[in-house]
Amino acid sequence: MGRLILVLLFFCNVTVVFSQKVFSLYSPDNCLEVRINIGEKMEYSVWKGGEKLLCNSSLSMLLGDGQKWGHRALVRKIQRRKADRNISSPFYKKAHVKDCYNELELHFRGDYGVIFRAYNDGVAYRFISTGKKSFVVKEETVEYCFPDDWKSHVAFVRTQGYHKNNLSQEGSFEDQFFKSFVNTYSHVSLSEWDRGRLALVPIVVSPGDESAICIAESDVLNYPGLYFNRSDNKNVIRGVFAPYPKEIRQGGFNDLQGVVYSREPYIARCEGARSFPWRVFIVANQECQLADNDMIYRLASPSCIEDISWIKPGKCAWEWWNDCNLTGVDFRTGLNNETYRYFIDFASSHGLEYLVIDEGWSARGQADLFSVVPEIDLEDLIYYARQKNVGIILWAGYYAFYRNMEAVCRYYSELGVKGFKIDFMDRNDQLMVAFHEEAARVAAKYKLLIDFHGTYPPTGLQRTYPNVVNFEAVQGLEHMKWAAPSVDQVTHDVTIPFIRMVAGPFDYTPGAMRNAIKSFYRPNRSYPMSQGTRCRQMAEYVVFESPLSMLCDSPTEYENDSVCTDFIVDIPTVWDSTIVLNGKIGKYVTIARKKGNVWYVGAMTDWSSRKLSLDLSFLDKGDYVMEMFQDGKNADRVATDYKRVMGIVPDNRRINIDMAPGGGCVFRVSKK
Predict the structure, then answer these.
(1) Cα–Cα distance for residue pair 454/435, rounded to 1 Å
(2) Considering only CA atoms, which of 146, 89, 107 is closest in space to residue 17?
(3) Is residue 163 over pLDDT 50?
(4) How confident is the model at residue 353 (pLDDT cuts 50, 70, 90)?
(5) Cβ-contact 225, 217 below 8 angstroms
(6) Average pLDDT of every residue of the chain
(7) Is 348 exposed, middle or buried (0-12, 13-18, 19+ CB in 10 A)?
(8) H helices, E strands: number in the chain
């Protein structure tokens, strides 16, 4: 009789679980709510204080055998968890990241589950596989159904490109899976999206008040990255993934790329139990808060590297942007040892940690990193740099690095190289994502830093492999070498801190010493200039997150203005604290960052002159002195005009700054 009662109780419990159709999950502060509906299909919605931020949106996975996760799902197990902890983040914009959330994990019949997390500043979910068998994912449904035709800030994949021998015709929908992840942002309603173009992640959507929503992804490992495209419904955007490559050949730019010639009818191959990427929905009460959001870092897998003592972020001298142009020297500048020795001397005399030797040191068109051009004695340069306490980072095309990854890392590590800047991946299908993880792992084995250029936006790999110190995936200063005067880089600069920088650091390469007002800017590949003022370039070293930061211009240009240069080289690249003081997407931004006992503050504006009153009440008690670089009275006519001000921070902790059109301001504050 007792056994019968136990059996009946068991089936009663199962019935209760199976009949449960709606689950709720609240953020720790109870302001955000996620409602998960389990029925014919699985959907979820997001609410903030009774306001609907996201309507019922589908999530599912279709497998190769026809099974569809999320379709008529039967719940087998429910688990709820809480977390309230600090994550150590040694190479980040702050020393510790607060990780406080509530979690709901649902397990379903069919060996899969879904995990939802609610933070005070957003929600996220991911699928998990609990089976042992291998399988393929034909498609994943990632859907965001918004309540109205809200405005969005979105960067679309460029329609033009440089790739040859591609699978499809230039400009086709398929061709967009093989492009650089770089463009300026459009401010358009969801209904105005071009359905023929893919959108890059992250994306920001504005509900209409001061708040903002950012759509992103985190912990993307051995799985394709995400694009978005608008559906037939004008308020709905859906995820798109590059199909799994079937045939890849060497080709593309200087034969340094992996060109996809055919694809499989699925997006991923999977081995048994695993976790899938987090789909992230960030909610900011004020859009400026996005410039200091930690969701991507929190959700990423913890570090795989036990000993991180050898990882050294820092600043780099760099010859590519300035085309090796030096003045007042008695040798012909170019890709030769005399030029690089000069750059090494400059780096050493200013305390720069690295010199990046960019494209041109290895034989062109061979994709062979063991074939060094005869004009360069690489061993001599590495030895010379070591005596000067400067590390060498080498540029490498993707295919050249990929084909001999282990041998390349072993050889150059033994030679004394400190890292690689890997370029021209330009894909985010599963195989390319797996390459990034493998490159990070192998490089770490040989104590090498990695800067992924020509790549997709970061998704937390910098936490999992902290030797990955930077990513491109941003229209940085290098584009000013060729961008037409119609390209508005100034507005772009005050847009990316709230969107692209949410994903993680970027290799923007600031530091131009030739600065142009709007009407004077012209592209020039050998003698490039920036849009906006000198102080704007200086402020970018504080505003932009970049653990490995370039001084893009020529050493002789920096030596012509040692006052600005000395300030730039003193700015740290990783921080203990970060505070966003103000900002508006595409208009202006002010960020304060602290290292040790010193605060740095950087501000930038669009093409409008702007006065800002900054609240420095975050400073501890005591008297503070300040060194400020501010746009000069004539910076609206001569962009290099600036004034340096030494002063004392007032007792009321208010600082007023003036910025010229396209201008900026930067200052540091320390105790008296």
Answers:
(1) 13
(2) 107
(3) no
(4) very high
(5) yes
(6) 95
(7) middle
(8) 13, 38
pLDDT at 159: 78
Q: What is the pLDDT of residue 156?
A: 97
Nearest in space to 616 (alpha carbons), one of 667, 543, 541: 667
Catalytic residue among 140, 292, 423, 557: 423
Helix (H) / strand (E) element for 423: namely strand 419-423
Mean pLDDT of 151-180: 76
| pLDDT greater than 60 at residue 149 | yes
DSSP one-letter string for 193-253: S-TTSPBPSPEEEE-SSS-EEEEEEE---SSPPPEEEE-SSTTEEEEE-PPPEEEEEEESG
The tokens for 505 are: 């650091």
Phi, psi (deg, nearest 5) at residue 642: -150, 165
Q: 106 and 76 in contact (C-beta within 8 Å)?
A: no
Partners of 157 in beta bridges: none
Name the amino acid, one letter, at 377. Answer: D
- Which single residue is written with the structure tokens 């290799």? 507
As a whole number, mean pLDDT of residues 312-325 equals: 98
Q: How far apart are CA 123 and CA 121, in angstroms?
A: 7
Active-site residue flag, 210: no
* DSSP at 130: -
Please tell me which residue in 43, 478, 545, 606 is annotated as part of the active site.
Answer: 478
- The pLDDT of 349-370, averaged and rounded, is 97
Region of residue 236 (phi > 0: left; psi between -120 and 50: alpha; otherwise: beta):
beta
Helix (H) or strand (E) holding 567: helix 562-570
Q: Is 414 considered catalytic here?
A: no
Structure tokens at 21: 């159709």
Query: Considering the entire predicted model, what is its pTM?
Result: 0.95
Peptide bond before residue 202 is cis, with ω within 30 degrees of 0: yes
Closest alpha carbon to 63 in 8, 141, 116, 1: 141
Mean pLDDT of the region 473-496 = 98
pLDDT tens profile 12-47:
344 334 445 899 999 999 999 999 999 999 999 999
